[in-house]
Amino acid sequence: MKSKKIPYGKLCLAFVCLCVFVAAFMLGFFLWPFFLPAAAALGGYLYIHWRYLRCPYCGTWENLERLHYAANHPSHCRGCGRLLEFDR
Ligand SMILES: [Zn+2]
């Protein structure tokens, strides 16, 4: 059976979006226009997570922490128990 993989680049992109969101959100308290890129970054993160960061077999969502762990250690899906593999 062909093994399916989670795109590793998308995992990195999700982390970047999250960092941009946190930084822009904090700046937003001083200069309100920064709330706009914060909202865009959060939207981008949620889209990437929804679109790509799920089990390729059963579609169970994993949180970023678990995915990051799975990228470096053999890890199995909570839903179907298959090995989560990353395409890098
Ligand atoms: Zn699964």
How is the topology of this model organized?
Layout lengths: L5 E2 H21 L6 H17 L12 H9 L13 E2 L1
Helix pairs in contact: 1-2, 1-3
Zinc ion binds next to loops.
Low-confidence stretches at least 5 residues in length (pLDDT < 50)? none
**Secondary-structure element pattern, one letter each:** EHHHE
Largest sheet: 2 strands, parallel
Average pLDDT reading: 94
The distinct ligands, each listed once, are: zinc ion
User: Count the strands?
Assistant: 2
Helix- and strand-based class?
mainly alpha
Q: What value does the Rg take, in angstroms?
A: 15 Å
User: How many domain modules?
Assistant: 1
- Write down the overall geometry: elongated
Oligomer: single chain
Number of DSSP helical runs: 3
- The percent range for helix content is 40-55%
Strand content: under 5%
Give a structural overview.
- This protein is mainly alpha-helical.
- The chain has one domain.
- Helices cover 53% and strands 5% of the residues.
- It has a two-stranded parallel sheet.
- Helix 1 (8-28) packs antiparallel against helix 2 (35-51) and helix 1 (8-28) runs antiparallel to helix 3 (64-72).
- The longest helix is centred in the first third of the chain and has 21 residues, at 8-28.
- It is elongated.
Short description:
By secondary structure, the protein is mainly α. It contains 3 helices and 2 strands. It has helices at residues 8-28, 35-51, 64-72, and strands at residues 6-7, 86-87.
Task: List descriptors.
mainly alpha, 88 residues, binds zinc ion
